[in-house]
Please model this.
Amino acid sequence: MARTPDDVHTALRAEVARRAGELWDVALRLHADPEYAFAEHRAAAVLTGVLERDGFTVERGVAGLPTAFTARAGHGRPAVALLLEYDALPGLGHACGHNLIAAAGLGAALATGTVLGAAHGSVLAVGTPAEEGGGGKALEAEAGVFDDVDAALMFHPGVFDWARAPLTAQVQYRIGFHGRAAHPTGNPTEGIDALAALIELFNVVHVLSRRLPPASHIQGIVTHGGTATNIVPEYAEGRFGLRAATTAELEDLVGRLRTSAEGVARATGTRAEIEQTGVRYEHFRDNAVLSGRFAEHLARSGITLTPPAPGVHLGSSDIGNVSSRVPAIHPFVAIMDSDGCDHTPEFARAAASDRARAVLTAAAQALACTAADVLLDPPLRTTAWARHGEPEASRRLSA
Model:
């Protein structure tokens, strides 16, 4: 007899519940052994070992990244990807809760593969290293990992219960100024002060920042300011982090920073060297069709998700680069109260708390049910893809 969607959801929730102890053990194992960007070898080994044991076909080193992987059950389309993050923060450990993201994605993939088998397309668990710095998902997206995927699903622990993630676009730039060394007393007119040029750029950025749109900002630090006080600095360098509400606004901001640096160089007689460092994170494009479905499933566990507070942004993530290619979700589910904050020692402790354990099970169940909906409901997929293809402004207005 054919199973109804409710039958499938009930079976998925039961399967996750059956595995809840193992999933929590995985989360605690990762929490106790934090690893950092592109060096998450033990975490990747733990996760792929469990997936292989359950019959998933594992490919390691995808996109040329040693700690990235894909694990597949089934074949062909439709295909749904569960995203697993597992990198930690230097000095803070799992203060962003990626141990929970990995365990929830793992549980959802295992449950969906077990309940649906291979007859309904593909379940893909994607190991995504270096979210905190390095952009594993962005590199995987560029390498085509998500080219044949119909939806990319993940959740993120936080201090709010929000159905979608207000995540900005961000990029880093190195700007160096080349001048000419001289003795500041003996022949000061022969020198061209590169540090003075860099300081002037900070002044220009400060003025510029007062008239930027909401969510846009530039934060800079001096990474090299000279070698001795009795030498006019011939080279000075700063690193600038840029964020904006959308990827298009970020590109505009990059252009303004570049114009400012080149103008300062001309005014001071220096030469500016401008270089992007690392991967650009695009802003997150929520697929309201799928995030709404996830919220419905999560409500079965007694957790109600709401829209994010207007005007609040929660940083950036390489999930943005995935969301520009396929329908994606990235809801936040609280593991501590809203007076807390991630990237703190307190949040690291919360990521191994009893509340985190309950959230892990609930999120894995909701992810599994949403993944099954993607695989079993052709009209849902069609609607999700149609929403994905809408202009950004239209999607925002209807969200």
Notes: The chain has a mean pLDDT of 95. The two ends are 38 Å apart (CA to CA).
